[in-house]
Amino acid sequence: MSPITRSQRYRRIVTVLVDEGFGTVLDQLGIRAPWVAGVLRRRSAEEDPSLSPEQRVRRTLEHLGPTFAKIGQLLSVRRDLVPASFADELTRLQDEMAPFPYEEAAAEIESAFGQPVGELFATFEREPVAAASIGQVHLATLPDGTPVAVKVQRPGIREIIDADLDILRTQARRIHGRTDLGRRFDVVALVEEFSRVLREECDYVNEAENAQRLRAAFADDPTVSFPAVHWDLTSATVLTLDRIEGIPFNRLEALDEHGVDRQEIARRGITCYYEQIFIHGFYHADPHPGNLFAMPDGRVAFTDFGRAGVLSAEAKAHVADLLVAIIGQDGELAGDILLEVSRSTADVDAIGLKRDVSNLIRKYYDLRLNQVDTRELIVEVMSLIGKRGLVLESEFALLLTTLATIQALGTAVDPEFHFVESVKPFAQRIVAEQTRPETMARGLTVTMRRTLKALQGFPDNVNRALRRVADGDLRMTVRPGGFDPLMSRVEQAIDRLAFALVVSAFVLGFSWLLAPTELPWWLEVIAAFALVCAAGVGVWFFLSIVFRRWRQRRHDY
Asked: Looking at the predicted structure, is the pLDDT value of residue 368 above 50?
């Protein structure tokens, strides 16, 4: 497969946007490559006017390919970024794709390890058991008889993702510079976050390290299982793990047919998640029911480690305080915590935010514990944050999303599952740890050290500032944003005016040469020579304008 170029992906993206009725987006972004106009003049015959805007966005992301489908999935859980109706529709984005041929998978394995599949494995099933946007999984057996699962990356997928991310970064800079909305949500930072996540998912060594870290953390826990990594058969594009024999949590009928205690496996799986989050600060960040298995021996097994969350001690304390505040109906504390873990480029009504959070918590106050849908509560909290002009820090947003998904997972497997009852001991444990005398003393020591350091440097900083004031060297730097489009229009106007002056000079010069005059012949020769020089300067000026615009468009695209 020949590598895809950036221009090819641009053409594909523009074509899909136009076909789905989003051609005006191109105008708003100022994309005016010569071939774009031709695409804009046509509309797809398949366009369905009955589709809602949410459905059209979801279908567009699916047609744009794996990069945009993945980003849509990430946005579906960020209710602080997208409206609820769009988030609900984006949850329907599918990651499944048609499998690629066995020959391509075998070629990728041979390229990674320098040996044919038949020498590396005793058996290797040609048909994959699962195929997603980034890779597919084949069942195999090692020469020593160990059953394994081999994930092989889709050929050429990394080049497509790299091209898409490059395009997204360019357009993110455009949106950030031209719109208030882009600056408010800092779309450049969001694209960088998405880029990091996608690159991690494309690196199977990273996924193997995540699996190994969790396996080591729960090596002594007899209730859960994490597959071992076979490092000699793992690379950036091939991942080999122990095969998991069990029933996925999303096959409820099969669980019942095999007599699985659904309440017990739900408890074991969810408890393991809480320990990952609140004890180890490193957790499996994709708690999809299809990624957890009930094994024949009663253990719960985890798969798919492409995305993991890492929590700092401060973040763990924040989430514990937030859960305790929600459980204790303390809207004031919950609002303070949300302000601490959010960011915004505009002024925020803190009092209004706390009032909204208090009203939201009060909504659930009179419900019995088994009636509280904690997932809905967390989703509403995230939506409220977005409406108030705040954006959650990615670390905290991922954690809240995971907790909401855990609630849905537990309820699906065990309808009697109580999220609040199950998470309360872990939250209280963290709060208790934070209030232990040795912990508080350690925190106080760090704070005093930082304060002392700041105080020691304070006199020097003040003297330096006063000296600059006395020398008249105190400067204030103002960096306004959003002026790029205006400056571009000013440059275009100046170019046109200068070019008009040059053309006017040509017209006057030729008119004067063609008109009968009584000037000496040598003066006419000098004038003609000057006119030729002016013509050369005019051509050079015209070409410089064209070249500058061409370079600007290449930079934009």
From this structure: no
